[in-house]
Amino acid sequence: MATSPGLDGFPSEVHEQIVGCLDLRGLFSLGACSVRWKSTAARNLQQRLMASGHERPEDDRCPICFDLIELPMGKHSTINVCCMKRKCDGCLLAACQGGMDDRCSFCRTPLPADDASQLAMIQKCADKGDADAINHLGEQYYHGILGLGKDVPRAIELWIKAAELGSSEAHHHLGLVYYTGDGVEEDKPRGRYHWKQAAMKG
Hints:
This protein is mainly alpha-helical. It folds into two domains: 54-111, CATH 3.30.40.10; 112-201, Serine Threonine Protein Phosphatase 5, Tetratricopeptide repeat, CATH 1.25.40.10. Helix content is 54%, strand content 4%. The protein has nine helices and two strands. A two-stranded antiparallel sheet has the order 1-2. Strand 1 and strand 2 form a beta hairpin. Helix 7 (152-164) crosses helix 8 (168-180). The radius of gyration is 26 Å and the shape is flat.
């Protein structure tokens, strides 16, 4: 059977159904063909949508310009503890050039002046159940910064809470400490579990 023009871009099963629906005059018949066509088109669309996805999570986008932040994100962005949003260096530079170097470029809150103020802002967000703030607070305990002593068990406790609230970063941190046995008994299967959860959450 000769193929119809303009059908080369379709998958073979769709192509066969389209050609099978052509009547002798070369026009589409409207009966059962229409149902088969819609069913096949819907199935193919669902398969394409399920196979597609984002290569990077939505949290990797700057909330101001919506561009993906260059990797490694820690070198090309900053987290402001007032709103726990990660902004790209380009937007921070634009805010500074526009005279907003003393306020958050996202929520307009005055920036904290010292470690105690920063810690108070993180704690305030964490007390409200913000998973990102709880994860960030865990990082401060893990590294012993912002005037906190290094406390890995406390960091793990906070990361578990943040992971339960949906933080993929907290799952990543938990995977790392359990897999390497850093501050906790080494548990490679548990570490892999947390890495898998982090990957599934984006």
